[in-house]
């Protein structure tokens, strides 16, 4: 199955949006609406992921998560889809967040593998199916074993693909052979979960990216995807190489930290991070400034 044959339930370019906070750490919904508008109207995002790890979901309350989805949906929901991160290590709580997101205006759900408890694959099947059954919204599975401790194995993904509302995967596993096998055997839409691996994953059938550096590199990343789709692999590679400094540089430390620092450099301050994250150092900001310049964004 070629990339062009695979449905794109949320378009091709998505950004895992950071969550704006005030100087005292309170949720800033006005800034969230402004940031979402910038990401859609200037950075060409076709959908936004709200309440993901980049959005500091471990430190926001359930009520804050609902308010954030509503604010972003009100701001850009007429021209971009809203995907709500709802995954936790507790199936009951994840279902609650899924139902809350549906009521708050989300168009889809991102559900990460339960972390820390490291359930067996049978537990993953039960968890993901229960969440997918809880609402009518389409579901993206988030496979990131480097953070959760547990990969979603190929056989498990093949079985989950049979569920009518499980439509895709945010793939940050880094196992291209495994991803290629799932893509060959299912119609799941794969979104790259590691910015620098977007072009390689496109080559085995992915449809796009859920990015972090795309707070800055969105237009170029979409141009890279479009070039690949039309068969201009040389142009796609040119974009990949141009953007590589920011694709990798945004993760010199935890990505949220540098996105917020980079937005401040651009005059779009979205406030501090919440503990246990810490704001970027002057040394990290200097490197970030150089990475942005090298990528031409």
In terms of topology, how is this protein built?
Layout: E1 13-16, H1 29-41, E2 47-50, H2 62-76, E3 81-85, H3 91-104, E4 108-112, H4 121-134, E5 139-143, H5 145-148, H6 154-160, E6 166-171, H7 176-185, E7 189-192, H8 198-202, E8 208-211, H9 214-229, H10 233-249, H11 255-265, H12 282-295
Parallel strand pairs: 1-2, 1-8, 2-3, 3-4, 4-5, 5-6, 6-7, 7-8
Helix pairs in contact: 1-2, 2-3, 3-4, 9-10, 10-12, 11-12
Search tags:
alpha/beta; globular
Strand content: 5-15%
Number of helices: 12
Question: What does the oligomeric state look like here?
Answer: single chain
Shape: globular
Sequence stretches where pLDDT stays below 50 over 5 or more residues: none
Q: Can you count the beta strands? A: 8
Describe the structure.
There is one protein chain. With 297 residues, this protein is α/β, with parallel strands linked by helices. Helix content is 47%, strand content 12%. The chain is built from 12 helices and 8 strands. The protein has an 8-stranded parallel barrel with strand order 1-2-3-4-5-6-7-8, surrounded by 5 helices. Helix 1 (29-41) crosses helix 2, helix 9 (214-229) runs antiparallel to helix 10 and helix 11 (255-265) packs across helix 12.
Summarize the structure.
The chain has 297 residues and is an alpha/beta fold. It is 47% helix and 12% strand. Helix 9 packs antiparallel against helix 10 (233-249).
